[in-house]
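WARN no homologs supplied; continuing
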Amino acid sequence: MDSSKVSNVDPHTLLNFNEVGNTYLKEILEELRSSKQQIGFGHPPKPRYIYTNRQYPDCLWYFWDGENKRHEPILFNALTGIIEKLETEEKEYKGKRNLKINLHIKAERNYVIESGTETMFSKGLLYTLSRLPVEKFKQPITIAVEPGDTAQVSFCRIYNPVTGQSVYASYTEPVDWQNVIARATSKINTAHGRVEPRVQIPQTA
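OK structure emitted
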C-alpha cells in the first residue's frame, strides 16, 4: 500500500473507522453472551432423544444408538432444563400405531423426552405440567424418573431445582388426556411468547 496515501488520510477518519470496528466487535461479543451460544467444538445442534422404560436393568432412561441398535444408559435419573415445547406424534411400534409425546428441553444441549401417552411416566408428567403456572416454564425445571412398584412401571416427578421442592399433581381416572395435553401445551407456548391461532366459532342466528 502507498504510504503517501496513508499519510494523506485524515486522522479523524482513521479514528472513526477504529471506533466503528470496535463497536461492531463489541456488538458481536454481546450477542454471543446474551444468547449463551457455545462456540468452538461441541455437539451438533440437533436434539438428542431420551427414552424411558424398564426393559434394561442398568438404567431408568437411555439414549438409543440406532446405528449399532443398542441403548446407551443414562446414569443420572434427573434432567434439569427449560421446557420449550410439547408435541404429540404417532409412531408405529410392533405393527401398532402409538401416540407419543415429545417434550423439548433446553439444557447444556437440546433434548427431547419421548414417551408413550399411555405410560405412567407420561401421565404423571403431563398432568403435573398442566397444573403448573405459566411463569414456571420460563425457568429451569427438574424432571426425574423413578422406579415403580413393578419391573414394568416408571413414574415421573418434577422438582424445583433451586429449592429441591417436589411437585406432583395426583389425578383420579377418568381423565380427559387430550385436554390435559392441550392445557400443558398452551401454557408452554404462552411462556415462550408463541401465540396460538384463535378458533373462530361460527355465529348462529
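Residues 45 and 98 are 27 Å apart (CA to CA).
OK
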